[in-house]
Design goal:
With about 550 residues, the chain is of the alpha/beta class. It has 16 helices and 30 strands. It has 2 domains: about 250 residues, Alpha-Beta Barrel (TIM Barrel), CATH 3.20.20.140; about 190 residues, no CATH class. It has an 8-stranded mixed sheet with strand order 3-2-1-4-13-14-15-16, with helices on one face. Strands 19-18-23-22-25-24-26-27 form an 8-stranded mixed sheet, with helices on both faces.
Length: about 550
């Protein structure tokens, strides 16, 4: 039997008592209240933190390594959508995540990917139809239907879309939403379509980037996930809602690179929320309680008989985590992980061959102005511009002086001509950056200041069969991602260090983005407006159609 003594936080009762908690590796056996006031010098005992929506693959770590870093920050569970690896490897990819996650003491709760491929306007490595989704929903490790990104299909009551939603409802599992920008009656129609009101299973949405949009969805009955990841940052815009809707809000990261995961997780959001004056019990309700209630997670809530999932923190302002227990096992202490690292297996789907510099040439069009993607720091949405790139020898070229650079998406699953366009706000003055992490189909995406650098960076990724790369004159850096071209099979802290180095290199090349590689990965995410690039060409996310093909 193990014991911890400290200031026990009863989130729902909104009290803090000095108490002794006894537990074994099965459950909490006894809670003895010693005093009705907190005692200085003793830690605060809380239920563990939960990330209510995250793509583990975006950490560039396999689940077992993600867990090693996350527990240091008091995270004991995630609600994880494996649609990144599903888009590459299909059912085999989902099973890989479940099996690897089961090797460590951490509570992964996976979803059945609903949109593989995300759209018909890009080339993915696999397809999950109604039959596959229905099968996945029978797995005990699958707790919900992952984000239904095809919101036009939901609004139009597309047959396949609705069959997947109905399969989740028959399985008694909730449906995660994904409806960026939907307001008013459309938000209401979407919310009603994904909810199972008979079973009391409302949908969620983690894509709100304004308070007004979130309010529309809250009034439509949806739960709102406040997202703060490496690229998309909506915390400041939405945190005020927690005062008004403490039972309907959760915290999530969505996509978090290894360096930022090493620095902090849900613990940082709790500290920021309390600093903004949000009541601490409401903050902890969003971080620890609401996800368990909504997804029916097997995660302890610091009650007698519950699984012994708990954390000790220094105070209720900064939430510095001292110890983390999962099922009664000490998995982190003193800022160090106690989960062992071991090599993970490799699966992949990578078939294309190296490209030539001439493949990245863009012939001059009839009109001097061309559509240009404008990236926005801290957002997944983009603006659509119409600008005139400079011309040389009958071709459009990058212009680093005007921050007008070439962007390419190269099909990784077969040999085809690269899709080409222009982008602004990446800021590179020289060189190029490339990645095989490109939501959601994960073809190769790259931005470069000149065609030669662009080609070099792309070919580094192709030769390694996945990874993130940067080239700058005679210097090259590469972080290999051999697991589906998305994740490393190495120690998580080593990967975080390598990623920090390549991130710093790209910023030294001129990028002013806070997370250049994460932002790059979303420039192919067609379901987020306004203008994106797939391997088939530029895509108008507002009209939901290609506006050109190829180059």
């Amino acid at each position: 039997m193990k014991q911890v003594k400290g200031n026990l936080v009863d989130i729902m009762g909104r009290t803090v008592n000095f108490a002794l908690v006894e537990f074994d590796e099965a459950q909490i056996r006894k809670i003895q209240v010693i005093g009705t006031e907190p005692v200085a010098g003793h830690p605060y005992i809380l239920p563990g933190f939960i990330d209510s929506h995250v793509h583990i693959e975006s950490s560039m770590l396999v689940p077992s390594e993600f867990a090693r870093l996350a527990v240091v920050h008091g995270t004991v569970a995630t609600v994880s959508d494996p649609h990144e690896i599903a888009n590459v490897c299909g059912m085999e990819g989902v099973r890989y995540m479940i099996e690897n996650g089961n090797t460590v003491p951490f509570k992964f709760n996976f979803g059945a990917p609903s949109c593989v491929p995300a759209t018909g306007f890009e080339t993915a490595g696999a397809r999950l139809g109604v039959e596959e989704v229905t099968e996945l929903l029978q797995y005990p490790e699958i707790r919900y239907l992952s984000e239904m990104m095809n919101f036009p299909g939901v609004l139009a009551h597309d047959l396949e879309v609705m069959e997947k939603i109905n399969a989740a409802h028959r399985a008694g599992k909730p449906v995660d939403g994904h409806a960026p920008g939907l307001r008013g009656i459309d938000a209401l129609r979407y919310a009603e379509a994904i909810a199972d009101n008979t079973a009391g299973l409302p949908g969620t949405d983690h894509e709100c980037f304004t308070k007004e949009e979130a309010l529309d969805k809250l009034k439509a009955g949806m739960k709102i996930l406040i997202r703060e990841g490496s690229a998309a940052k909506n915390f400041d815009a939405l945190i005020g809602l927690l005062n008004e809707y403490p039972g309907e809000i959760m915290f999530c990261s969505d996509d978090k690179h290894p360096d930022s995961l090493e620095a902090g997780h849900i613990d940082r959001l709790c500290a920021r929320a309390v600093a903004k004056g949000v009541n601490v019990f409401d903050v902890l309700k969003a971080a620890c309680v609401n996800p368990v209630a909504h997804y029916k997670l097997d995660v302890g809530q610091l009650k007698k008989g519950d699984p012994a999932d708990l954390i000790l923190v220094e105070d209720l302002q900064h939430f510095r985590v001292l110890e983390t227990y999962i099922n009664g096992r000490l998995v982190a202490s003193g800022g160090k992980t106690l989960i062992q690292s071991f090599p993970a297996g490799i699966i992949n789907h990578f078939e294309c061959r190296p490209k030539a510099i001439s493949d990245f040439r863009i012939p001059v069009a009839d009109q001097p102005n061309v559509p240009v993607i404008e990236a926005l720091d801290g957002q997944l949405i983009t603006n659509a511009l119409l600008l005139a790139p400079p011309q040389e020898h009958g071709a459009f070229v990058s212009d680093p002086g005007q921050d007008l650079l070439k962007i390419t998406v190269v099909n990784r699953y077969r040999d085809t001509a690269p899709a080409m366009a222009f982008i602004r706000n990446f800021g590179l003055k020289r060189g190029a950056m490339a990645s095989s992490v490109a939501h959601d189909s994960h073809n190769i995406i790259a931005v470069g200041a000149d065609d030669e650098s662009l080609c070099r960076a792309v070919n580094l990724v192709i030769t390694a069969k996945g990874g993130v790369a940067a080239v700058d004159e005679d210097r090259e850096l590469m972080v290999p991602l051999p697991v589906a071209g998305l994740m490393s099979n190495e120690d998580g802290y080593t990967v975080a260090m390598a990623y920090t180095a390549i991130d710093q290199m790209v910023k030294a090349m001129g990028s002013t983005l806070s997370a250049p590689f994460m932002t790059l990965s979303f420039m192919a995410l067609l379901v987020i407006p306004a203008l994106k690039l797939s391997d088939k060409g530029l895509f108008d996310g507002r009209k939901f159609e290609l506006i050109n093909t190829g180059k």
